[in-house]
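User: Sequence recovery, please. Input:
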């Protein structure tokens, strides 16, 4: 629910590509994958010139770095197509995957499903390439008629095979501390998917996890791509897993801009009638995450974010009560007088009082800051809900 503002500049782009290229290995291996990336992009050019143009702009940018930054870059970028795949923006990668599903996967799944129906099989139909791969894996040992059908190659199998080794290469990221480098560079301190748990490395240990927004088992061509690697907490990384739903990436521009974490009295609760005990508040509220963005809503549902937030009603009740008590003029005057005499700024007073950041640009620094920010913003817009519930 918190976007990642970080973008690779020229120096960092080259640094990341160099790190990955060392893992890929020899110039022969690099040239092989450079050609495969070029081939992949050319298949897109045949059907979608606009999308190919977006890809080519990144390739041209990388090729132009030698001239724009001669002191920074000591050698010509020999593997511009590979480096394009490593540094494409999330929005472009998502469009490419939509293209892949439409032209490389869809017809193949239709044929396999049709053949199963024709042979009178009652297996539930294949819904995605990931689904196909999982069923192939489960049924391989058992064999049978359905396995014989789904083991037949579809067009995307050939494309998938071209980049399957990228999955094995990614497995080396931890030992080479590339995932540690990504977390440190992006400055992500709290999981951007949930804003509930810290994400960090401990000294020299790469403890933070990276989620493949486009899962690597299904789309290995982006298994090593910088903007496909989202620093995340173990819970979000595990729950999201290989989800094929249309979800939102924290790297996308303006993502999560309309998300609001809100509290409401439970249907069985009308008012606390002046009972301001925290346990009373906790037992009579629920948290709802609101958004008009369908992809973000998929994040909320697929990753069970509302369930997770409703595990923190004790904290929510504290923030709700602090908001109610702090926002009246008498309380603010007293609290600010106390702290301002000590030379503490208004921003620091609010952070101390609420236990989190209220500035939108700082929500990534501490867990549950998004909820705190939204509760306070909701009160400022109208205190009626608070007044009706607590008074």
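Assistant: Recovered sequence (391 residues):
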């Amino acid at each position: 629910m918190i976007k990642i503002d970080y973008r690779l500049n020229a120096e960092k782009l080259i640094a990341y590509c160099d790190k990955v290229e060392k893992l890929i290995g020899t110039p022969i291996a690099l040239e092989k994958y450079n050609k495969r990336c070029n081939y992949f992009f050319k298949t897109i050019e045949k059907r979608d010139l606009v999308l190919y143009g977006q890809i080519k702009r990144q390739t041209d940018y990388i090729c132009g770095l030698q001239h724009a930054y001669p002191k920074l870059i000591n050698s010509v970028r020999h593997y511009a197509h590979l480096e394009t795949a490593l540094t494409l923006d999330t929005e472009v990668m998502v469009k490419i995957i939509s293209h892949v599903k439409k032209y490389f996967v869809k017809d193949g799944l239709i044929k396999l499903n049709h053949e199963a129906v024709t042979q009178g099989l009652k297996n539930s139909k294949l819904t995605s390439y990931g689904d196909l791969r999982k069923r192939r894996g489960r049924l391989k040992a058992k064999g049978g008629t359905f396995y014989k059908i789904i083991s037949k190659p579809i067009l995307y199998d050939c494309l998938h095979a071209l980049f399957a080794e990228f999955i094995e290469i990614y497995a080396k990221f931890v030992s080479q501390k590339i995932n540690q480098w990504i977390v440190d560079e992006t400055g992500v301190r709290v999981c951007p998917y949930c804003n509930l748990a810290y994400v960090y490395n401990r000294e020299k240990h790469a403890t933070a996890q990276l989620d493949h927004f486009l899962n690597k088992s299904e789309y290995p061509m982006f298994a090593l791509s910088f903007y496909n690697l989202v620093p995340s907490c173990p819970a979000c990384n595990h729950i999201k897993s290989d989800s094929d739903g249309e979800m939102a990436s924290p790297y996308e521009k303006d993502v999560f801009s309309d998300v609001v974490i809100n509290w409401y009295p439970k249907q069985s609760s009308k008012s606390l009638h002046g009972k301001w005990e925290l346990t009373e508040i906790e037992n009579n509220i629920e948290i709802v995450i609101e958004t008009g963005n369908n992809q973000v809503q998929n994040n909320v549902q697929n990753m069970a974010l509302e369930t997770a937030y409703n595990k923190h009603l004790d904290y929510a009740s504290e923030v709700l009560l602090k908001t109610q008590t702090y926002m009246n003029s008498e309380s603010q005057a007293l609290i600010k007088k106390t702290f301002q005499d000590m030379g503490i700024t208004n921003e620091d007073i609010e952070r101390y009082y609420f236990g989190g950041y209220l500035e939108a640009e700082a929500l990534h620094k501490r867990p549950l800051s998004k909820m705190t920010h939204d509760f306070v913003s909701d009160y400022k817009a109208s205190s009626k809900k608070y007044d009706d519930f607590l008074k």
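The CA atoms of residues 190 and 372 lie 15 Å apart.
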